[in-house]
User: Which sequence fits this backbone?
């Protein structure tokens, strides 16, 4: 379907973008035709434009349903920066502020109104929207309507009434969750009529994925952050305690880092999110709650210090990196110890959920399936881009991605792995398969700890067989053997490790073993895309633009990226425009930004002190 010719013009004038991405074009065509749609795109794929652009074509007022206030506010800020009339109705507003928004709504001034599902159905807002004659609804994060999704929100179920109350309106659902079951559920729950089903590519070519055996969490995190000094980074941890511990360790090392988790009070959490958005801190050390409300597009690094529980979760959390399309890195620090902790947590929470036995069993089975798929991802030595694409049912078309540890040739095999494995397995046999990973490690490296001495294990023939290694390295090797099922581990609170048939094959020399070299430091090599992103960019100018942007953002009390994103700053620092017309040709510069910042930016490029921006 040919797109309305006005679209390209609007895109250039308002956003300063040259073209739509292919799926955006289809999604916008569906919206303009009033045809229901379900748009599935990964985080960073460009969903928001699909509902932001259409109302400009016919000056309509469209409504966006979004689950989180922070998310709405960020979007409205970003829209206001380009002069786009949008507002968000949410619980954080005073009655007067809400009244003002309702007035603008009634006067037909707004192109987009953001609101949460519970506010939509419970406040009389629906009647107002009927009066205004709303013809289009965008439902963001639509997987929240499905309990097959990873983020079910009961209040989303009430959105079913949109179809009845607005029989002539079209509904447009957006999600990054790709499973067919969730998709079908969205279509059913919202009663979408013959929707255009638009599914994007899940691969994120600008992200470089690495999986690194975890040996020393804090040390490794510091080392990786060192590659991204001063850049926005998110470090995900499993527990609250750990976010605090790690954040203070990073802070002690001079890194601007703060913890974030659900146990902190709300105002503290908000302050941290805002500090991150405004670039006064660089690193958020967080449980998974962080970042859901964060749209910062220049996140250059996402570290997981433990295994996530599903590929969807991993895709979503790593998806916060590089949303501006520039190179970013995602590192997963992996140990099979995580699998065991998650397994017991999953069982425990199913028991506590007071479900019928077969319901609980189904829940556990489903969650374990997700977990083990993620475990296989972490353990395999296959291209990460290919593995993730396949996880989402898509075929990765390249033989090597050039942007993962495997394709970059960073993973090293441990020399003499079979012999090392035999030493470990025989030690497990010597301690009679009655001890856990730590104890076996202590015996192997010859540590005269209280536990070792108490059991007389310093007299075993395997005592000190791996004396050249440290405790973390030995434990990591034991975990690798557990991963490969060359060892087994009992359940319960104090799991012990034991041998299985495969262990005996190794001990008898019938099965060769491959182990990865556990390293604290990683051998990260630069990717081509990283080099391309900086190609021709005047780095000094980029940094000057960045600090100017920070000042403007502070003065306006807005997140820095809403002023201009990094991709735009780099385009300017590459093109060095000398005139307003040349500046307008840079990506991300539309008419409003030219009017607001043109003079200041041209001054900076010319090396003059920038014009004041109020
Ligand atoms: P999503 O909501 O799917 O996570 P966003 O809508 O936030 O993704 O878009 C991700 C990034 O891509 C943003 O930085 C946005 O400015 C940029 N973007 C979106 N569409 C285009 C386009 N057509 N051309 C250039 N950049 C785009
Ligand atoms: Zn690869």
Assistant:
């Amino acid at each position: 379907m040919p797109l309305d010719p006005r679209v390209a013009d609007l895109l250039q004038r308002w956003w300063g973008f040259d073209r739509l991405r292919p799926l955006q074009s289809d999604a916008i065509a569906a919206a303009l035709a009033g045809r229901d749609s379900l748009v599935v795109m990964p985080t960073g794929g460009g969903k928001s434009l699909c509902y932001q652009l259409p109302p400009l074509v016919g000056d309509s007022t469209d409504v966006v349903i979004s689950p989180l206030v922070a998310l709405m506010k960020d979007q409205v800020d970003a829209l206001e920066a380009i002069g786009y009339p949008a507002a968000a109705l949410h619980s954080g507003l005073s009655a007067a502020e809400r009244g003002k928004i309702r007035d603008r709504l009634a006067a037909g001034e707004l192109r987009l109104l953001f609101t949460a599902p519970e506010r939509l159905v419970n406040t009389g807002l629906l009647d107002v929207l009927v009066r205004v004659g709303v013809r289009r609804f965008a439902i963001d994060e639509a997987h929240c309507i499905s309990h097959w999704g990873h983020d079910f929100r009961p209040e989303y179920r009430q959105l079913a009434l949109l179809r009845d109350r607005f029989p002539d309106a079209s509904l447009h659902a957006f999600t990054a969750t790709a499973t067919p079951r969730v998709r079908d559920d969205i279509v059913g729950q919202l009663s979408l009529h013959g929707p255009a089903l638009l599914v994007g590519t899940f691969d994120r070519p600008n992200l470089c994925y690495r999986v690194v055996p975890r040996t020393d969490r804090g040390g490794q995190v510091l080392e990786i952050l060192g590659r991204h000094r001063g850049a926005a980074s998110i470090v995900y941890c499993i527990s609250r305690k750990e976010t605090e511990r790690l954040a203070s360790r990073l802070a002690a090392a001079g890194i601007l880092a703060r913890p974030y988790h659900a146990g902190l009070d709300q105002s503290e959490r908000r302050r941290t999110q805002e500090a991150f958005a405004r670039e006064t801190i660089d690193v958020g050390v967080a449980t998974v709650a962080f970042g859901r409300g964060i749209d910062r597009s220049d996140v250059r690094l996402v570290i997981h210090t433990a295994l996530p529980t599903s590929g969807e979760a991993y895709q979503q959390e790593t998806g916060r990196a590089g949303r501006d399309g520039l190179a970013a890195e995602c590192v997963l620090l992996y140990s099979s110890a995580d699998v065991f902790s998650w397994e017991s947590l999953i069982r425990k929470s199913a028991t506590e959920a007071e479900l019928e036995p077969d319901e609980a069993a189904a829940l556990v089975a489903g969650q374990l399936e997700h977990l083990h798929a993620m475990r296989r991802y972490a353990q395999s030595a296959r291209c990460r881009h290919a593995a993730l694409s396949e996880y989402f049912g898509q075929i990765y078309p390249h033989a090597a991605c050039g942007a993962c540890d495997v394709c970059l040739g960073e993973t090293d095999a441990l020399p003499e792995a079979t012999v090392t494995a035999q030493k470990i397995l025989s030690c497990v046999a010597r301690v009679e398969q009655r001890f856990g990973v730590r104890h076996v490690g202590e015996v192997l490296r010859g540590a005269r700890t209280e536990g070792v001495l108490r059991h007389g294990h310093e007299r075993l023939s395997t005592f000190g067989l791996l004396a050249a290694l440290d405790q973390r390295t030995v434990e990591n090797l034991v975990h690798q053997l557990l991963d490969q099922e060359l060892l087994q581990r009992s359940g319960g609170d104090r799991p012990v490790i034991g041998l299985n048939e495969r262990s005996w094959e190794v001990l008898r020399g019938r099965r060769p073993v491959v182990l990865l070299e556990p390293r604290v430091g990683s051998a990260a090599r630069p990717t081509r895309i990283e080099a391309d992103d900086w190609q021709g960019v005047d780095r000094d100018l980029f940094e000057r633009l960045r600090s100017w942007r920070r000042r403007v953002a502070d003065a306006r009390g807005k997140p820095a990226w809403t002023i201009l994103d990094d991709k735009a700053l780099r385009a300017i620092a590459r093109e060095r425009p000398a005139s307003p017309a040349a500046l307008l040709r840079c990506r991300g510069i539309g008419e409003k930004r030219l009017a607001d910042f043109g003079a200041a930016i041209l001054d900076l490029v010319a090396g003059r002190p920038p014009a004041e921006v109020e």
The first helix runs from residue 6 to 15.
